[in-house]
Amino acid sequence: MSADPRRRIPRTDHLLAHPDVAAAAQVLSEHVVRGIVRGAQERARRGEIAAEAVLEEIRSALGGRPAGSLRPVLNATGVIVHTNLGRAPLSPAARAALQDAAGYTDVEFDLAAGVRSRRGAGARAALLAACPEAEDALIVNNGAAALALATTALAGTDEVILSRGELIEIGAGFRLPELITSTGARLREVGTTNRTHLADYTAALGPSTGCVLRVHTSNYRVIGFTSEVAVAELAGPCREAGVPLVADLGSGLLEPEPRLPAEPAAAAALRDGADLVIASGDKLLGGPQAGILLGRAEIIARLARHPLARAMRADKLTLAALEATLRGPVPPVLEALRLDPDALRERTAALADRLGGRLVAHEGRVGGGGGAEVPLPGWALALDPALAAPLRTGDPAVVATVRDDCCLLDLRCVPAEEDARLEAAVRTARTRLDPAGAQR
Ligand SMILES: *Cc1c(COP(=O)(O)O)cnc(C)c1O
Hints:
Blueprint: H1 12-17, H2 19-23, H3 30-45, H4 54-62, E1 73-75, H5 92-101, E2 109-110, E3 115-116, H6 121-130, E4 136-140, H7 143-155, E5 159-163, E6 169-171, E7 174-175, H8 176-181, E8 186-190, H9 198-204, E9 209-215, H10 231-241, E10 245-250, H11 266-271, E11 276-280, E12 291-295, H12 297-305, H13 307-311, H14 316-327, H15 332-338, H16 341-355, E13 358-361, E14 379-383, H17 388-392, E15 397-399, E16 401-403, E17 406-409, H18 419-433
Parallel strand pairs: 1-15, 5-8, 5-9, 9-10, 10-11
Antiparallel strand pairs: 2-3, 4-12, 6-7, 11-12, 13-14, 14-17, 16-17
Bound molecules: pyridoxal-5'-phosphate.
Catalytic activity: L-seryl-tRNA(Sec) + selenophosphate + H(+) = L-selenocysteinyl-tRNA(Sec) + phosphate
GO molecular function, one term: L-seryl-tRNA(Sec) selenium transferase activity
Family: Belongs to the SelA family.
């Protein structure tokens, strides 16, 4: 046996040829596999592991490791459209559609005729079926892209008329006024923070008006001495002036949602006379990230012709998932929104029976800049706050809320069929926290 233990470290070519290591090529690139092999050899060279343990170290580093780093999360926060957790979870129908579209697919091809076809025709048709008030529809990458495209194509370097009560920041420093002016359009602010009148708009309408924009103040409310001008009131003056009226709804509701009476719906805005409506695909619509534009055929055509439309076009996966969301069963976002508090209480109490902890009243939220200030009555299981960290780093990862010195698990956004996995995750987290097995 050699005096230098490092000489016993298996050679790279031997390790790469080992069946377990070679099998990893099914899911990981050669570059990644070589990196893992080299890492284990390095550790052995530094004396951190024995030379004999190198193969085992590589096996465990490769073990079940997916090529991507995004991990599935059980959202136990009660926040339905959780931006940090990827907003809307897709319905099973949308997930299946993603799988089907992942390879070659007829996204821009007519299989019957054997010729090129309109891109995303299926998703467009599904939108028009779900919102018959719209003459045409266009799908881009996200709501922000839809707004930038609309104001750029309709206003160019002319003015976008917008109420001072709607100069909003959506999140993480994303300010709509800055987005609008970033492509050259000029902002013509009218009214005041709390009150804007029809006369403020009509006084601003003129030859340099590109469009009038109404923005739903999704994530905050102005209350008290306030007034705003409804789309229905603006429609007449805009039509007379020959200026398009654009309504940015944010949320993506196509039809009114009884649980959220203050949330505007696309169908109503179009009926009220908006020429163009903008919405996100992954908020209350419950689909993939997308920017949805619905409205008059002539306006949609102007947008689709603009060079920016190509830079913002939705990919095949988005189109597939959006169409399936629209044509499939109620998506998880709306299911979570409409959840019966008694059913939630029953599930939470059952979990408390099995795990211990206290059943407490807990309000869910719409989140994602929708349904501001609308509480969703519900329940949570209150556990030791120290569990939050091992829950987050466990498998499955569970994200809970820590408040009032409790780790709160809200089941609203956890699919009922995952309750057993959630229970197991809590047990594992307790063991990691306290291997001696004390109940927390
Ligand atoms: C969320 C939101 C946007 C941005 O949409 P994204 O899909 O997040 O890009 C724009 N306007 C309003 C009113 C919104 O609520």
